[in-house]
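Q: Structure for this?
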Amino acid sequence: MLSSMLHDAKRIWVPAVTMGVLLVVWELVVRVGLVPNFLLPSPTQVVAAFIEDFPLLMGHAVATLGEAALGLVIGVAVGFVAAVLMDRFELVGLALDPLITLSQTVPTVAIAPLLVLWFGYGILPKVLLVALTTFFPITVSLFSGFKSVDKDLIDLMRTMRATEGQIFWHVKLPAAAEEFFSGLRISATYAIVGAVIAEWLGGFSGLGVYMTRVRKSFGYDRMFACIALISICSLGLMRLVDLAEYLCLPWKRAERK
Amino acid sequence: MSDSVETQVPAVPALEARGLGLSWDDGAHMVAEDIDLHVSAGEVVCLVGRSGCGKTTILHALAGLTQPVTGRVLLNGADVTGVPGRVSYMLQKDLLLRNLRIVDNASLPLVLSGVPREEARARANELFAQFGLEGTQELWPSQLSGGMKQRAAFLRTYLMGNDVVLLDEPFSALDAITRQELRTWYVRMAAELHVASLVITHDVDEAVSLASRVMVLAGRPSEGKPSRLVGEVLVDRAQDAGDFSLTHAYVDAKREIMTLLG
């Protein structure tokens, strides 16, 4: 009991101390002048910039999170439908597989300007870029989850006169649930990054737009504050996925025990 | 007891296979040929053969999961060849769905057939004590021992509602003591519930422990020699009062099966 509590505590304080040490070293490196301050602001300067620009940052963060969330929802929906069709119809699987793989070999930064060119400076190109980058992990994880189902289980369901829909609902979907959440965790981080990249290339609001502006005015402390906020948003989104997984897969909690 | 014994066949057996011929590749490569067998209500029959001789392939055909190249499968006299869902089928793995509680796993066949979930749970609940599962209704499969999982799988198989049960090495994944306990329990349950059971196994001890009749399958399909039924051994369970495995009847039956297996 005590050793388990100590082990749990270790999982918190070891990374916390590591992070603390890194911040202290960073602060010292800047303060003693090993790196010029105009190139690298100290952590305390970043925190000060964060506090100073907090209302502005929040406004931009809302825009970015909105685009990321909308794009993620579309990406998940498209990824889900693609995975189901690929699993259900072999021909669709053969047809879509190379296209889906190809879509991931195109760099996001290369396709983003094209989307801006085609769809303007509004929300649409941002949402499309997020959807494009997030559907892939969902499709791949779900498809592999569907394929991982024990063939004997399918045979058993057939002996119980289960329809294809019932096999999907009772066997395939739960079997793929864990892999789906793994994919969703990756997609959640891609969503924020995708939205920020799209904002860099044009737009009126969002953390990417804010970053472009502060970079042009050499406000590197503000830039670091924005980077920190992007990381916090990504971590928050990942925690939300963890919470959804915890609530949706109660049997996993029993298995862990 | 002897091989090729004349057994009394009821007018219409619960399950009957006539001249089954099975292939892994649409007839090009035969796995089993001339399979004639029958199982009556309340009877436990074992089909014994070496690993790879096509036992599971035969069971798949009897369950309607595959179409035989030749022959027919009859259920209470009606032709059900290639039609799944008419007999209950249990495999060596418990195949409980890990995302369903035990009561939901057990009642799954009822839910699949359109019974509302609460009613299905209630009907399954009534049988939990009889199947030695009392108190496990709301647990997840991961919280049960191997033996208990197998009991839950038996309950699910029973709730499929068919009077013929096919079992594919149902005890092979269990430890020796649990295996023996469950064999004894199953023989009693099958008689109580009056279901016809066909069990396949490569374990001769298991066959003699479970069945009143053992059919021996021999052949090497992978070497181009399709499997055939080479004999039938009746197990005299009249002495089944104490430990049956220590009786002459048990040893004699086992010796006879081993001889037939070659």
